[in-house]
Amino acid sequence: MKNIEFLRFLNLKGPNIWTYRSALEVWIDIGELEDFPSNTIPGFVDRLTTWLPTLIEHRCSYEERGGFVRRLHEGTWPGHILEHVTLELQNLAGLPGGFGKARETNVRGVYKVVVRARHETVTRAALFAARDLVMAAIEDRPYDLDGTLRKLRRMVDRLCLGPSTACIVDAADERRIPTIRLSEGNLVQLGHGCKSRRIWTAESDQTGAIAEGISRDKDLTKSLLETCGVPVPEGRLVDSPADAWDAAQDIGLPVVVKPCDANHGRGVFIDLNTQEEIETAYKVALEEGSGVLVERFVPGLEHRLLIVGGKLAAAARGEPIFIVGDGKSTVQDLLDELNRDPRRGLLEEHLLDPVLLDREPAAVLELQRQNLTTESVPAAGRRILLLRNGNVSSDITDLVHPSVAAAASLAARIVGLDIAGVDIVAEDISRPLQYQGGAIVEVNAGPGLLMHLKPSDGKPRPVGEAIIDNLFGPEENGRIPIVGVTGTHGKTTISRLIARIVHLSGKHVGLACGEGLYFGERQIERGNRATWDAAHRVLLNRAVEAAVFENGSAAILAEGLAYDRCLVGVVANIDPTDSLPEFYIENAEQIATKVKRTQVDLVLPEGAAVLNADDPLVADMAQLCDGEVIFFSTDPASELLTSHLKEGGRAVFLRDGDLIQAEGERQCKVSSVDAIPLTENGAVAYQVENVLAAVGAAWALGIGPEVIRAGIELFGTERAEEQGLKFKSQAA
């Protein structure tokens, strides 16, 4: 059979006609498969569900477990099947997300398939893989599913956010704080414009460079902590193996030898008792850092306390790592078996590190202490210690003594970190440190969060929420006022007029519209900038206090919107002849119900939609708005307007040449058309509508009538002056 053909991909990077989330839309041609629904292809359903048994979890339109498999048995078409297989491949690769749609077009055999896309490259690869898998099931050919999943998982590991960053982003999403990924790494902006914050894994824009530098210098950190009364192990910097042994004798055996500026526990040797051990440890530690510390050995286990904003957010305890002999396997065999644990790996999402002797000289030393090599065959039942402080983490947040939490918080403040991983060695974390000789051994910037999200024992902790709550107050959501403007005609003028009024109100405004990109009164770029990229640039600008965006139908369909929600959404009008056949949008009604409505869907509950009461297709969108509706009209006797005002609603309308703001029975004259240059004394009817729409939007933003009046009466005068000067220059 003919292969499913991909005709076009649309990377919908923001809210779109399908979903509030980013998605990938692909147009496909299934050709002759239009005549072969799934229930007519012998063995197809069995082959597909054998490869992907987890499809049983897809509820589909029946809204019940097994709903999609039921549809397969009843008969459905390849576009629908491609949607579900793509989603399941993403799920199995580590990108959960259940949104998907498949819709036929007015061309036989051509479908639009839309799936959630957390990363466009991964989702595109999943779509191609899904097509190959579906065709293999149709044609009864073998398919390497394991190889496909390995490839997709590698892509997820390489391209998508790591688990620490992802948990913070998810927490922001729970609080409806918008997020923007700023790089292919883990740099993320939380919020928009001047209200935004930034994170990089578990560091924030509150994490100072000086504090981070202090945390990397273990000797300086210890000195500062000791000066402030925080319990730390005695010790000093050493400059040679002999000096390390001298320091150990001064401090008293056993001791710890470690690099003064390494991290992740590399080159750290503990419980050293002989000159040979100490001098050997010195050489390895020096390779891992720029200097070496010798410290008093503190008995007990290592505990990681996560301090966020001066408060204990979570705590985990590291456990020693052992292997157990069976009388047959070598130490290396037992190590290989230990490292086959799927939780162990070198990537950030792996909860545990592998024990690799070429990277863990401390483990080699422990084996030597037990008179073992990698070729030794330990007796059955013999427990062999590999690392005294391994990375197996048990949650012990509820056990931490208040005084221990206070000491960790003080340590983070002394170093200057808003988010810190404080390492404490103690025999019993539920007792004060001074009663057991416990000590703080390190203070780390940018601590990993995975141990708290997926502890080996105990409950996960909401560390992402703790970081978000530290960055944003209870009433903060990282949002600036955003106005989105759509319609068939007048979008650019309305957008520019709103931006002018916002500017006069005292806010630094960003504007992306059909005439260019503006910041304040300055035009940064000319030409059509009613695009996702231009709007995105506005939202990234940390000087911007409010934003206005023009959104055309083609941009909404091809790119989606750059913002997740807006405070004000304006729909100016819909031309009865409007259509976009190149997107399979055939008439004005489809433009209204499938495309323009997106702008109204995004209005926040505390916001408002500004709608043309004289256009039935626009006025009908009122029922879609989560917030308030402000109608505008050139007909003061409009039945819709009258009804709306009787219910206490707000409206802007033209009466006897005057622009009136009304709320219920209260009315206020804003200006008259004679005073507004844009309308040419009211002679240009469509400009009157544009002004009414802009006045409604400014009112929705809470701007007073005096500023609105100034904005609409001055708008256009500077352009006339510019044109006059240009004319005089040319005449001269």
UniProtKB/TrEMBL annotation:
Gene3D superfamilies linked: ATP-grasp fold, B domain (3.30.470.20), Mur-like, catalytic domain (3.40.1190.10)
Keywords: ATP-binding, Ligase, Nucleotide-binding
Coiled coil ranges: none
Leader sequence residues: none
SUPFAM superfamilies per the UniProt record, alphabetical: Glutathione synthetase ATP-binding domain-like, MurD-like peptide ligases, catalytic domain
Domain of life: Bacteria
Gene Ontology MF: a single term: ATP binding
Domain ATP-grasp: 222-472
UniProt xrefs under PANTHER family: CYANOPHYCIN SYNTHETASE (PTHR23135:SF18), MUR LIGASE FAMILY MEMBER (PTHR23135)
Official protein name in the record: Cyanophycin synthetase
